[in-house]
Specification:
- With 127 residues, this protein is of the alpha+beta class.
- Helix content is 24%, strand content 17%.
- The strands form two sheets. The chain has a two-stranded parallel ribbon with strand order 1-2. A two-stranded antiparallel ribbon has the order 3-4.
- It starts with 8 loop residues before the first helix and ends with a strand.
- The model is unreliable at 86-90 (pLDDT under 50).
- The structure holds S-adenosylmethionine (SAM).
Amino acid sequence: MAGFGDPAFYGDRWAAVYDDHHRQMDPGPAVEFLAGLAGDGRVLELAIGTGRVALPLAARGITVEGIDASAAMTDPGPAGGHPLQLADRAGPDGQPGRPGLSGRYAGWDRSPFTAASDSHVSVYQRA
Ligand SMILES: C[S@@+](CC[C@H](N)C(=O)[O-])C[C@H]1O[C@@H](n2cnc3c(N)ncnc32)[C@H](O)[C@@H]1O
């Protein structure tokens, strides 16, 4: 049996209950934040899971691609699932991008990140 060293370990165990378990976690603020960053560009979600964030982003007309280690997470289920498209991480010129931190917030609402913050949303942009 595969253990914690297997990238699919988490997803394969959570897939059946993931959406139910996260039903109270509104993806709306994250979707709003990410849609603003995406503008008219495309989105690549690393560890897309069941599409909890990706599907509402795509519903806004944004092209979303995702990768995930667990086929169980990405398989269409009762909630509909999503078509998985594999994408590489190279930049438009074929070279890996060199991201630099361009902003850090305490939450999706862009509230200031301070020493007292217990969460962060960090934005990296290719230099
Ligand atoms: C907590 S879920 C998050 C899913 C989704 N991003 C969301 O916000 O609902 C974590 C996801 O990461 C995936 N994952 C874990 N390790 C991974 C790895 N090494 N490569 C790709 N995906 C991975 C899992 O299969 C799972 O779908």
